[in-house]
């Protein structure tokens, strides 16, 4: 079964992006897979092709405006338009107290998680406007509600991306574009692998204490939430952030 709808996914090489791509392939979507990790991105491409998906992989660094322009243009060239956009690429930096961060770490996390997400929106939305609309899911975080300990800069990027989601919900309603934030809490991927090495035992205990009771999610489970938010749930959830923290209450 093929659905004549195109889903563009950034951060498609690993974790949530890959799980989402595989589920969408099973449902018959056309897929444009974007990542700067070419090797793992091509593995995702092979996995979705095994499911007979029509799919392309585009190598791009989401922080680079020319790369972003190019991934949008290549997607349109391949599939004609973009119906759904999973604005998902993201990263973490080592966990520290705010004053311990150096400016390079600040720039890196802001560039990927906020500027990269903004650039995606800046170039995808005009394509959607020409197509009479489209639906966007921004991967935000439980850190969009409340920072976990020693995670101030990452948390700032995810608060800001939640704000962009709400802005789209407010500003584009009559233009038929919807945006939803999907907020995993602890998702079982490798994103935090390089983030926790800075923590002493004492700080680790504080981090654990700042993460209330919740069920860690698989990327496959969060992918289901992204698909619902992008498709059948988009009208209802437009302009909101969906808390996927498995029992931890933030609002
Ligand atoms: N894992 C968690 O606990 C968790 C919790 C909340 C939110 N998130 C968010 O989920 C999203 C997906 O992360 P994940 O957990 O699947 O981790 P992941 O590291 O497996 O996936 C992130 C992907 O983004 C790509 N990426 C990073 N920087 C990029 C750049 N400059 N250009 C292009 N691609 C780039 C990586 O190569 C990778 O494929 C991120 O936005 C992350 O912030 C994760």
Automatic annotation (TrEMBL):
PROSITE patterns: ADH_SHORT (PS00061). Transmembrane segments: none annotated. GO terms for molecular function: oxidoreductase activity. GO terms for biological process: bile acid metabolic process. Keywords: Oxidoreductase. InterPro entries: NAD(P)-bd_dom_sf, Sc_DH/Rdtase_CS, SDR_fam. It comes from the Bacteria. Pfam families: adh_short (PF00106). Belongs to the short-chain dehydrogenases/reductases (SDR) family. This is Short-chain dehydrogenase. It comes from Cohnella abietis. The gene is fabG_6.
């Amino acid at each position: 079964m093929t659905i004549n709808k195109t889903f563009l996914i950034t951060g498609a090489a690993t974790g949530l992006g890959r799980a989402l791509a595989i589920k969408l392939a099973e449902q018959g979507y056309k897929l444009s897979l974007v990542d700067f990790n070419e090797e793992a991105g091509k593995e995702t491409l092979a996995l979705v092709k095994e499911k007979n998906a029509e799919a392309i992989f585009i190598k791009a660094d989401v922080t680079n405006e020319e790369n972003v322009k190019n991934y949008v243009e290549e997607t349109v060239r391949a599939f004609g338009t973009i119906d759904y956009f999973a604005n998902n690429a993201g990263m973490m930096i080592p966990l520290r107290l705010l004053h311990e961060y150096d400016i390079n770490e600040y720039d890196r996390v802001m560039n990927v998680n906020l500027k990269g997400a903004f650039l995606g929106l800046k170039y995808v939305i005009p394509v959607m406007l020409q197509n009479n609309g489209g639906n966007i899911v921004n991967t935000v975080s439980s850190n969009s509600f409340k920072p976990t300990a020693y995670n101030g800069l990452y948390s700032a990027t995810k608060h800001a991306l939640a704000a962009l989601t709400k802005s789209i919900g407010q500003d584009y309603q009559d233009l038929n574009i919807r945006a939803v934030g999907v907020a995993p809490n602890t998702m079982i991927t490798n994103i935090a692998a390089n983030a926790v090495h800075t923590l002493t035992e004492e700080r680790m205990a504080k981090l654990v204490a700042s993460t209330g009771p919740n069920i860690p999610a698989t990327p496959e489970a969060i992918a289901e939430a992204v698909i619902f938010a992008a498709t059948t749930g988009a009208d209802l959830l437009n302009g909101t952030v969906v808390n996927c923290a498995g029992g931890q209450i933030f609002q």
